[in-house]
Amino acid sequence: MSRGRLSLAAVLLVAAAAVLAVRIARSEPPAPGSAARPSELALVVLETEGGVLTAVVGSGGSLPPAAIVVPAKVDLTIPGQGAGTMGEAAALPGRQAATAAANLLGVWIPHHVTLGEAELRAVVDRAGGISVGGTALSGQGVIDSLSPSGDPSEAVWETTLEAILSSATWEAADVPEADSPTAAADLLNAARGAAVEILPAEEVQGGLMDTDPEAIQTVVTSAFGGQGRQVLPAIVLNGSGEPGVGERVAEHLIPGGFRVVVSENASSFDHDTTLVVVPSEEHRALGERVRDLLGVGEVQVAGPASGLADVTIVVGKDFDA
Question: Which of 224, 257, 286 is the last residue of a domain?
């Protein structure tokens, strides 16, 4: 790494602190008792030579636009696949990646965008470059700053993304790898001036990063609005043998206020009817809520609770998303 690139990375890291101070000063919480209309969300995945960088960007709600950077090493459950990291999820097709991020954050993410270095470089250059902490960067300068030592830097991504969203304009042609290029471009343009922060996470054994669901809920509600409802854990077991069924179940559960904490195969694939299992009669209403979200299934009481969740779904052949 050249001394110039090292110095640039240092400048950008220091700039993050200044940006945070400005963000705190300008943030205004909604009035007490008012329900903020939630933002429309998109998962943005930037593919660099050193790895991936991700962020969930929101705009169009009652609150000002905002974005949350999700570190690649954050541990999460990928619905339909099991345990993984945000980096591993980001390498999947866009819809699967967005569903995994939604499962982590506890809020549905309808849109997804995958950018390569060339696309981001073109967007920045068309804007005439950007300024990050007083440093002017061209499109190539942005790419160089994000991976100064080979590994993409989420701290630099946080600060740089905020500068990009403040200055750049987006066209559908800039985001060809999106679920809807037009909708994605509109969402990113509406996110002008978005405050960006990194999802709180703590490094644990093996280099992974762990998150706290309550802290996530606080950050997500503050950034994107909504009712701030409790997100409930659920276990999903594939009892039909149909590939990808866990992901499709999650697409029904996450908008309804659930998070998949375990996603794996059942002991057999001979389940014709979906079972929604709860530990006691007191939880029957919870089971019925899940059944209604899925549109199929029978609620069964079979305690005790697993300790991970109060509802277990054994997906049968009757489930057809």
Answer: 224
The DSSP string of 23-68 is HHHH--PPPTT--BPPPEEEEEEEEETTEEEEEEEEESSSSPPEEE
Q: Which of 188, 203, 224 is the last residue of a domain?
A: 224
In which domain, by residue range, is 208 found? Answer: 3-224
Amino acid at position 201, single letter: A
Full pLDDT tens readout for the chain, 321 residues: 443 433 444 433 444 444 344 343 334 444 444 455 889 999 999 999 889 999 999 999 999 999 999 999 999 999 999 999 999 999 999 999 999 999 999 999 999 999 999 999 999 999 999 999 899 999 999 999 998 776 788 999 999 999 999 999 999 999 999 999 999 999 999 999 999 999 999 999 888 999 999 999 999 999 999 766 789 999 999 999 999 999 999 999 999 999 999 999 999 999 999 999 999 999 999 999 999 999 999 999 997 878 899 999 999 999 986
Query: Within this chain, do residues 104 and 158 fall inside the same structural domain, yes or no?
Result: yes
In a shared domain, residues 37 and 144? yes
Phi, psi for residue 63 in degrees, rounded to 5: -90, 160
CATH of the domain at 22: 3.40.630.190
Q: Residue 321: inside a domain, yes or no?
A: no
| Residue 293 covered by a domain | yes
| Statement to judge: residues 48 and 20 lie in one domain | yes
In whole angstroms, give the CA distance from residue 313 to residue 298: 10
Q: Are residues 49 and 159 in the same domain?
A: yes
Whether residue 137 contacts residue 200, with contact meaning beta carbons closer than 8 Å, is answered with no
Query: Full-prediction pTM beyond 0.90?
Result: no
CB atoms within 10 A of CB 138: 14
